[in-house]
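ok so i was messing around last nite and threw this chain in just to see what happens. nothing serious, just curious
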Amino acid sequence: MYPLRGIPILAFLIRRLKHGLSEEHFRLILATSSLPQDDPAAAWAKYEGIHCIRGDHDNVLARYIQTIETFPSPVNVRVTADNPLTCPEITKQCVDLAVKEGFEYTSTDGFPYGTGVDIFTDDLLYRISDMGSTPEDLEHINNVVLNNPDQFNTGRLDACPPLAKKHLRMTVDTPEDFKLMDQVLSSCRIKPIWIVPLADAIQLFETFNKKVIN
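result:
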């Protein structure tokens, strides 16, 4: 796990979500594999005081089923560990929309890449677990929904200014992504760094991009 501003990306994300999401309404759970290589992730989850579910390395969907069987919840938020700037406010808005409208699946659109979330009901997770058959279905748990949109009740939270910055890449999928993220956040004066509001992070990324272009 790359250290982002001195701490592992996973710990950065956990602290960001713990700060922005109340324990009264949200339970944070790490769903990782049972392979020894993921022992450090499980150890960090324990250190940060959140639950950890471990399962099949090649079947992410099965790990989600384990999670909702262990911690039943009508609404479940998917956050991936390569998105350290996942926005708690967007998360809350998306959950509120899903609950209010009764959507089975709720996604976000228009926000910087790596800051949004998607929401699944527990019933939907069980359904797509029965329907999923390809390796892609098991790895990307929204794959079944995206490939069969007419079979599900779906909704979407669209970004509004100043957060509508779909062109910005704010994720860590590659070493280049990590280098960019670390460089951008190095100029952030908000402490602790993981509580930086998304609007401020967007400004930092845009300022950095302008400097690079110039």
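not much to say yet. The mean pLDDT is 94.
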